[in-house]
Hints:
By secondary structure, this protein is α/β, with parallel strands linked by helices.
Amino acid sequence: MTQYAKSPLMGQMMDQPLLISTIIKHADRYYGSNEIVSRRVEGDIHRYTYRECHTRSRRMANALAKLGVKIGDRVATLAWNGYRHLELYYAISGSGAVMHTINPRLHPDQIAYIANHAEDLYLFFDMTFLPLVEAFHSKCATVKGYVMMCDRERMPAETKIPNLMCYEDLIEANSDDFEWPVFDENSASSLCYTSGTTGNPKGALYSHRSTVLHSYASAMPDALNVSSRDTVLPVVPMFHVNAWGLPYSVPLTGAKLVFPGPALDGKSVYELFESEQVTFSAGVPTVWLGLLTHVSQNNLKFSSFKRTVIGGSACPPAMMKTFRHQYGVEVVHAWGMTEMSPLGTACTLQKSHLDLPEDEKQAILEKQGHAIFGVDMKIVDDAGEELPWDGKTYGNLLVRGPWVISKYFKGEGGDVLENGWFPTGDVAVISPDGYMQITDRSKDVIKSGGEWIGSIDLENIAMAHPAVQQAACIGVFHPKWDERPLLVVVKKPGVEVGKEELIHFYDGKIAKWWTPDDVVFVDALPIGATGKVLKNCIRDQYKEYKLPTA
Length: 550
Ligand code: ADP
């Protein structure tokens, strides 16, 4: 860790470590009767309070201690968003061990790689994942025992999984008489691996300090804006960058929490929104596509839903407009990454924007927004020279801050920082007033005749066409220009549209030479483990594609 200069006159405030356990203690003390509602893997709806969550977390902390889990040990989970998963967030990290959330959508070999790399000591899993655990457990050398997150009746009669325990038995067998230990706030608290679209997954190891600071900052009004009056349904999974920090920031504010469990289809999510009167939610665009399709096909409205954060990939402006104008739901476009805990920027309007015409407000809201306080950002050219914030010049986006990684777990990938800044791999422009807009991931940029074409812009335009459900734009080989854009489109069900019409749809909306050279129609786009369109798969698929202009 960097050593900073020491003043001869130090401040005289208490040196209290920022610890994750203090969040659940606070939620219990001040919002103890506020609810946590979960759609369970068992199929029913479970409800209890922050007080009960805290009690059961302490019981689980005692169970972990008896299992021999010590400060710094890694304990893994393979689980949906639900109350038992939340209990583990606090029991594991609160005890000083490291909560290692694994993405169950990864290939079993990748899961085994991650568990071995992390040297996980125990693995907790939801019933849904019993077959998955059966498929990979024999490859996990360090795991001493497995815990199925259910009650005794639902435990399998027979299994090859060694030392398989029952979650509710552990809760039952242990008392809630547990004092959260106090330790250095820079101790590791949780571990999350990047999805490994390029090479093996790498671990981002968060600390108690980084997590608590991220929770404060992300709850602020111009970020996620969560308060005790909200009812929050995190659609973003707790196995993907800690559900964007919501399992910490929501209890910190005392808001009611609603967990969707495994049922992430539009109908199930909508039902929960209405029955629990959800006011705020968060997720990647592909999930909202399912919800919006269900709502529009069935002529439904939202009776309580006010605000949603959309990030993880660019939110198509058409989706934002539908939410805002058709359903009265405010969209906060946010940007971040696993390496940033994840929140980096959020887009909200300032006072000076409020009287602008609607289209100008919309244009601001479509950007990824301002850095939230604590995150520092800049754009640089390939030589590392800083570029101006003029809204036109695009460059590589670099960040730093107390919740940005300094290195990957076990030093994978070597020294990743560039003069103390983390290179995000994203390409962006920043306006003079500090609003950042991602034009692309550097590896997705289309390089045509020595110039760059941002694929996100091309996709956003296509998705504004009434017949287009989803679109991805990739660069394919062109003998003269190196690469030219190819648009890959999923049509809305029952709607027809031709290539020519889509190509003409770009007229007047972008520079002529940015227009895709061709369009292909497909039934579905490949979606990765974190709900994002896998551009690298599409590129592989169309590697040999012959453009009509070639
Ligand atoms: P992975 O890298 O494994 O996909 P992350 O969820 O950490 O996992 O992905 C971070 C990346 O997602 C960012 O670097 C950026 O490319 C993309 N991203 C996140 N939010 C946005 C957004 N609002 N707009 C455009 N891209 C985004």
